[in-house]
Structures are given as structure tokens and as C-alpha cells.
């Protein structure tokens, strides 16, 4: 079954959707959309370093994304507004990554695949990495779910409950870096942030509990991945951007339904 490239692409899209869903909820709750973008943009620099050192691209992207996330976390609140800091680091990381790629000699690289994803080229090894990473992310968020939720809702309550919000922020940072490394093959560095935010934002008006929102976000993300794959195959459009387009349509429909419900 895995010899069919469409089957591998579908499994990859669903795996990424499952990995991004719970983290996307925290990104929405904490208003960290730019944080996700800054971490994702650093992935291109990780790709360039991996090719230069002839190491695993997954490992290089994970290390650079983690360093970027840790840098943002440590520098925030030290003289610059968070949005300014994120803007500087996100665009700088992407620019340095693109420049570093241009210096690579004797290496053929499809830059568009890393910027916008190439899910149709996913191999069995990529599939194992994606689902292995998704499993780690789900295990990490399930283990720290209650603590992460408490630290997100009320840091003072977290301290009273013997929970360190900074430690939970670090755990979330590690999980986000892992998701970036997992998702770059499917949707690319420029679209990872969209897959983190849009399904969670789509689920938000209809979820009554945080857990329900995470489950709904996973289902919507998987639906966007499969719907985008189908649309890209039939209309000959780029697969990663088409997945994001389907997610955006679902978001618009969700908000329309929510507005109608409030009007009635």
C-alpha cells in the first residue's frame, strides 16, 4: 500500500495535522502565531547547515528551530516588544537561510520544496519520521497537558499549584521545534505557521472544552490535508499551499456558521 505515492502523501498530511493540532491550540490561546512563524522560518537555515555538513536534514532543522525558539524565549521582555523581536528574528533567519543555500556548491536543492512543501515526494523514511515525531509531540503534550493549560490560563494560579510557567514555556518551545522539523517536508517553512493556527482557530467557536478543541483541530487539520491533496491532484496546483487554502475555506465557513448562530 505504501508504494502508492498518494497514500504516503495522505498519511504524511494526516500525521502533520495530528502533530500540529494540540500545539496549535496553545499557539492560539497564548497568541503566539508569530512565535511559530519565527521558529519555522529558521528551518531554511537548518536545511542549509545540514546540507553543508552532510547530516540529516531533520536533525539540522530540529536543532536550528530549537535554537531560534530558545532565543526568542530568552530575549523576550528584555528591551524589545515581543512582536518586534519576532519580526526581526523571523525575517533574519529566513534571509540568512536563503543566502546560505546560495553558497552551497555541488549540491542540488529544490528550494521551493522546503519553502512550500513537497508532500508528493514523501518517502517511507520521511513517513516514519513524521509519524514518529507526531507520536513524540502527542506524548509530550498529553504528559504536560494539565500543567501547560494552567500556565496558559493563569500564571499566578500555576505558581500556586507548584507549576513553573517558564518550564512549561520551554516544553512548548521544544514541541514546536519538533513540529517544524516534522512538517517542513509536507507544507514547507512558510506554511507551517498556517497549519498550526488555522485548524485551531477554526475549531475554537465550537469547542466547549480545551480537549474538545484539540480533537476538533486535529480532525479539521486532517480534513484540510486530505482535501488539499485531492484538490491539488485534480486541479494540478501546489499541494502544500492548496492544503492551507482548504484550511482557510474551513475557517471562513466556521466563522460564518458561528455568526449565524449568534444572530439567531
What does the model show?
With about 260 residues, this protein is mostly helical. About 80% of the residues lie in helices and about 0% in strands. It contains 12 helices and no strands. Helix 1 packs antiparallel against helix 11, helix 7 (about 125-155) packs antiparallel against helix 9 (about 165-185) and helix 11 (about 210-235) crosses helix 12 (about 240-264). The longest helix has 30 residues, at about 125-155.
As a percent range, the share of helical residues equals over 70%
Report the sheet with the most strands, covering strand number, pairing sense and barrel closure.
none
CATH classification class = Mainly Alpha
**What name does CATH use for the topology?**
ABC transporter involved in vitamin B12 uptake, BtuC
Number of strands: 0
CATH architecture: Orthogonal Bundle
Head-to-tail CA distance between termini: 48 Å
Structural class: mainly alpha
Name the average pLDDT. Answer: 86
What would you call the shape?
globular
CATH superfamily: ABC transporter involved in vitamin B12 uptake, BtuC
SSE succession: HHHHHHHHHHHH
Strand content: under 5%
* Low-pLDDT sequence parts: none
Spatial extent as radius of gyration: 18 Å
Q: How many helices does DSSP assign?
A: 12
- Tell me the count of domains: 1
Amino acid at each position: 500500500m505504501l508504494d502508492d505515492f498518494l497514500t504516503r502523501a495522505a498519511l504524511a498530511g494526516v500525521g502533520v495535522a495530528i502533530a500540529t493540532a494540540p500545539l496549535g491550540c496553545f499557539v492560539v490561546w497564548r497568541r503566539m502565531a508569530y512565535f511559530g512563524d519565527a521558529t519555522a522560518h529558521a528551518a531554511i537555515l537548518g536545511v542549509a547547515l545540514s546540507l553543508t555538513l552532510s547530516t540529516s536534514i531533520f536533525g539540522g532543522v530540529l536543532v536550528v528551530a530549537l535554537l531560534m525558539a530558545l532565543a526568542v524565549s530568552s530575549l523576550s521582555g528584555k528591551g524589545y516588544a515581543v512582536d518586534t523581536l519576532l519580526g526581526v528574528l523571523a525575517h533574519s533567519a529566513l534571509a540568512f537561510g536563503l543566502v546560505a543555500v546560495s553558497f552551497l556548491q555541488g549540491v542540488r536543492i529544490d528550494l521551493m520544496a522546503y519553502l512550500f512543501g513537497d508532500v508528493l515526494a514523501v518517502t517511507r523514511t520521511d513517513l516514519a519520521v513524521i509519524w514518529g515525531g507526531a507520536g513524540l509531540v502527542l506524548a509530550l503534550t498529553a504528559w504536560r497537558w494539565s500543567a501547560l493549560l494552567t500556565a496558559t490560563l493563569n500564571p499566578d494560579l500555576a505558581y500556586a499549584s507548584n507549576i513553573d510557567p517558564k518550564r512549561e514555556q520551554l516544553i512548548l518551545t521544544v514541541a514546536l521545534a519538533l513540529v517544524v522539523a516534522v512538517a517542513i517536508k509536507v507544507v514547507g517553512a512558510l506554511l507551517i505557521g498556517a497549519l498550526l493556527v488555522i485548524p485551531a482557530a477554526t475549531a475554537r467557536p465550537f469547542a466547549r472544552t480545551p480537549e474538545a478543541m484539540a480533537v476538533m483541530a486535529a480532525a479539521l487539520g486532517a480534513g484540510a490535508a486530505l482535501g488539499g491533496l485531492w484538490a491539488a491532484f485534480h486541479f494540478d496546483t501546489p499541494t502544500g499551499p492548496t492544503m492551507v487554502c482548504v484550511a482557510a475555506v474551513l475557517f471562513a465557513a466556521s466563522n460564518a456558521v458561528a455568526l449565524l448562530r449568534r444572530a439567531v
